[in-house]
Amino acid sequence: MRVRIGALLGVFAFLPFFVFAATSAVPAGFATGSLWFSKTEVVAGETLKIYTVVYDSSTSAIEGDVVFNVDTKEIGTQHFKLAAGETQILSSAWTATGGTHTFGASLRNVTGVSGTIANVETNSVSIKVAEAVPSPLSQYTNTVTNIIASSTPVVTNIAQSFYGMTESVRQGAVEALKRQLAASEGLRAQVLGTSTSQTSRDATDSPNEKSASILGSLWRGALSTLLFICNLRVLFYGLLLFVVFVLYKLLRTWMRERRAHSY
Questions:
Q1: CA–CA dist 85, 57 (Å, integer)
Q2: Half-sphere exposure of 89 (CA within 13 A, CB side)
Q3: CA 14 → CA 1, 2, 18, 172, 181, distances in Å?
Q4: Cβ atoms within 10 A of the Cβ of 66, count?
Q5: Which pTM value belongs to this model?
Q6: Residue 172 to residue 243: CA distance in whole angstroms
Q7: CATH assignment of 24-130, given 3.30.360.10, 2.60.40.10, 2.60.40.1220, 2.40.50.100?
Q8: Which DSSP string do the residues of the chain spell out, in sequence order?
């Protein structure tokens, strides 16, 4: 009985030492509150540096990696080596984006210790990143883009209406020129038929008849040329643009001269 009581007393006497050995952690890792930034007011697009400090208060050297994260996503890893009693500052860069973000750091791949590191994670810190103010050029570009986007349907409708009108004019001109050319050819055939039935004394045309024949040939040539142009869209619209350009230049010159005379 006395032996049992002595054994129990011995167990209880040494139990605190076993518990302390099992629960104690290696005094190393991150210092309390050891996460800070290169600046507190950040704008989207700027580079922000995140800093932390690791220490080793144990009796042996340690080595490992510090992993920086933003919103639980890794943004960089820094390797460290600490002799007993040393500290080291580590950092990582991050390009800021607008909104509220949470930052932190943790230890990974630690060697040189036989127990558990006391502080394997830093405290989490959240900051709000302001949206970047667009440059004047960017604002102007956005304004022009919005104007073009909003006016495109109107411009398209106007262009379609103008094309429909000019296409109707072109097709109408083709039909009218065909009729004119057919009528001119018919009149020419009648004249030729009449001239062949005349006697030899009428074989020599008068100057007026020669002039009329030349004018008729010129008229038919002009009709054929216009019909050729109107039949081909490329030639028709190219000539139309040229005429519009010439009229614009003439109108601009007239307005400039009128303004000069008014002064």
A1: 5
A2: 7
A3: 20, 19, 7, 115, 126
A4: 23
A5: 0.47
A6: 19
A7: 2.60.40.10
A8: -HHHHHHHHHHHHHHHHHHHHHH--EEEEEEEEEEEES-SSEETT-EEEEEEEEEE-SSS-EEEEEEEEETTEEEEEEEEEE-TT-EEEEEEEEE--SEEEEEEEEEEEEES-SS-EEE-BPPPEEEEEEPPPPPHHHHHHHHHHHHHHHHHHHHHHHHHHHHHHHHHHHHHHHHHHHHHHHHHHHHHHHHHHHHHTS-GGG-SPPHHHHHHHHHHHHHHHHHHHHHHHHH-HHHHHHHHHHHHHHHHHHHHHHHHHHHHHH-
Compute how many other C-beta atoms are within 10 angstroms of the C-beta atom of residue 123: 14
The Cα–Cα gap between 93 and 76 comes to 8
Closest to 133 measured CA to CA, from 38, 46, 48, 49: 46
Round to whole Å and give the CA distance between 99 and 74.
18
Distance CA 55, CA 84 (A): 9
What does the domain layout of the chain look like in residue ranges?
Answer: 24-130, 136-194+210-258
What are 139-192's pLDDT values in tens digits?
A: 656 665 676 666 667 667 776 777 788 888 888 888 888 888 887 776 655 555
**Cα(67)–Cα(108) distance, integer angstroms:** 7
* Total number of residues shown for the chain: 263
| 4-61: pLDDT as tens digits | 444 334 433 443 443 334 346 889 999 888 899 999 899 999 999 999 999 999 899 9
Tokens encoding 156: 């398209």
Per the rule left: phi > 0, alpha: psi between -120 and 50, beta: everything else, 119 is beta
